[in-house]
């Protein structure tokens, strides 16, 4: 059955259309206009008998005091502030939720500066019921859209966009809560916003994150919209054998499909004999297939976790510098010796960058693989 309010458009440059839309929702005024346009529909779908309260969800059941009964007010606790207008002790209309997120896994005070995330949403009788956008500004960086979608009686419903480190997005469709689906259909958009993996996603309670259950490579060929929220129109590529799925790291086995290339890396980079050192002795290096923008992700790094120091002995465990990167203060990610040749392992290629350049490949980035 065709869902109401669904539109699809095929276009030559869908990534540009996505970036324009992401820039547009950075404006609180734009979100409020969108809410005004759809307000009649939201009013019709509000359930007066069952809806989740925003204050109870944000503060996880903690007792909060000094809630205004009428007029503008705010509630603040544990680095989170909820601000808006109260009517009869319930939040109504435009509400903001501000969270200060401290970074504690870096070494210098500058790297440990907090980031500020602000959610702008619409509430009805104390419950999120309408559009919501979350914006974040890191220290000395631009504003970015962290999440966008619509709530229905306190639950996510319809298409939702969630930002991924490096500039990608996970776009999922949340059915009505009554559907009780354990998995959600969705697509991971790589940072170029054209290369994608489409499939089923499930929540991992331990990681508090979505994991790919089963998916296939795809390309974004257009942009659609349902009730004001865009979604990518896809062309699914050939599966190339087995379907893709999330593979947790940590063991000696880097991948169940070690020679299946990452779809994003296939577009942007390639491995060739290195141009550094004596001919025939330099090994392999990573090269760009096309021009990369400043700050764009170039490749991903997936490896075995190892402790920087072996506890109890005082001895340092130092993996090969050419095939390892720091992972927090106490761990490193290392590529086992048997996986360093591309005929044995090429599922990710970040390890083909020189050790001293592993975090910044020119002006582009090396990130942990989103599928591992």
Note down, in words, how this protein is organized:
The chain has two domains: 6-174, no CATH class; 263-368, Beta-clip-like (Beta Complex). Helices cover 11% and strands 42% of the residues. It has helices at 14-24, 28-45, 54-58, 263-268; strands spanning 6-10, 70-77, 80-87, 90-101, 115-124, 127-137, 143-152, 155-164, 168-174, 184-189, 195-204, 209-226, 229-236, 269-273, 284-288, 297-301, 304-307, 324-327, 331-334, 360-361, 364-368. The strands form four sheets. Strands 1, 2, 3, 4, 5, 6, 7, 8, 9, 10, 11, 12 and 13 form a 13-stranded antiparallel beta sheet that branches. A three-stranded mixed beta sheet has the order 16-21-20. The chain has a three-stranded antiparallel beta sheet with strand order 17-19-18, with no helix packed on it. A hairpin with a 2-residue loop joins strand 20 (360-361) and strand 21 (364-368).
